[in-house]
Amino acid sequence: MANYLAQFQTIKSSSDRIVIAVEDVSDLWLNVKDSFEQRLPVKKACLNNKARNPVLVENLPAEFIQTTDSRLRSRFPQEQYLFWFREPYATVVLVTCEDLDEFKTILKPRLKLIVQNDEREWFIVFVSKAHPSNDQATKMAKKVYARLEADFNTKKRERCCKFDLHGPDDEFWDDFDSKMVDCIRNTLDKRVQFYEEENRRLSEQRFTPIWNFCNFFILKESLAFMFEVTNLHEDSLREYDELELCYSESVNLPGKPREFGGLETGDDQAALLNPGFKALTQIVQDDVFREFEFRQYIFACQAKLLFKLSRPVEVAARGYAFVVSFSKTLALHENALPFCFREVWVITACLGLIKSTSTQYDGGVVAIDSEKEFYRLQGDLYSLCRAKVYEACLFDWLWGWNRKKSSQQCLIKHAILAKASYLAFDST
User: Fold this and answer.
1) What are the CA-CA distances from residue 166 to residues 31, 33, 48, 220 (Å)?
2) Same domain for 23 and 126?
3) Residue 20: in which H helix or E strand, if any?
4) How far apart are the C-alpha atoms of 409 and 150, rounded to whole Å?
5) What is the pTM of this model?
6) Which is it for strands 122-128 and 160-164: parallel, antiparallel or unpaired?
7) Which Pfam families did the record assign (predicted)?
8) Dist CA 327 CA 346 (whole Å)
9) CATH code for the domain of 143
10) Would the N or C end of the chain have less CB density within 10 A of its end CB?
């Protein structure tokens, strides 16, 4: 499964909305495309979160894609399940028919064949081409649609709605939106259940020889990403929190030595707010990721979700705790890291957190206690930054005095320290 990591990252980076498939049986899509796309994003979609509690999503990003599109081409079963988060959440079947016999002999058998897949959530939109002034055509359209409803609706669920090409009314759009959201919700519930069962199965192997964190990561982040795309950000954040905990347990398991990371150019520049700083394929080693890059990746994903939830104070709180904790981890690997690495990393991490949380923060919409907490955290970050500037400047002076040499790396660090010194001391 780890072999799919590159493909997983590519799909994830190119998917920012759910897909609604269009099965254009009667070549109608070009006639209705503009009207349908005006309904996006889906307004006030009631979805279920991981705990199966209803959550109202104000704007659900989505796009219509025809089933003939290459983006929806069939994949091998394993790939389909791995990347289930990007498969269509609903299928809209577009049909029209102006003759009852044609419906019975041609259209009905074809529709039965299309919708026989029980795993796919679908509903049928009957497009009436009859002009309101043509009574005969209007009556025939009503008869065909009545037959369609009788054949495809059930007592438990209505699957059909009627679109008037010459002017759909508000009642149709309400019906259309309702059926589409029902399909999306049902699909999401099924997929959440699948990912939960798979993650539970892999979690049970955590302390066995066959445990593979990379496999677990792909499934866990697939679930997190699916929640994120459907704007269930709280659930997505919870998945990343659990992933962080599981990684902490895995990376500390006894076994063969693993590379820590941090030895590449630019690694001393903290990447706490940039999940795409490095491709995951670059930092994977055997069955697990290098600790230096992966911990920053997880935090960056968490911070992105917290910003979407309008919680910059929590980003600052988590960020400060992470910097303090990770600084201790860096100290354990200090002998293998470049000179002054830890100090520069902490300085850039603090400055990055200060800038991003200040930009996202709006003191006018929070409680007084939250405002006090935010500025206290900002002060803590500045204080930590100042402390590391003192240490780095001292180390830098001693190193330069003893070695009597200069290098590009030294010049870069001087520039960073100069900027950090200005910002840290200017805050006072």
Assistant:
1) 11, 14, 36, 47
2) yes
3) strand 18-24
4) 75
5) 0.88
6) parallel
7) TRAPPC10_1st
8) 7
9) 3.40.50
10) C
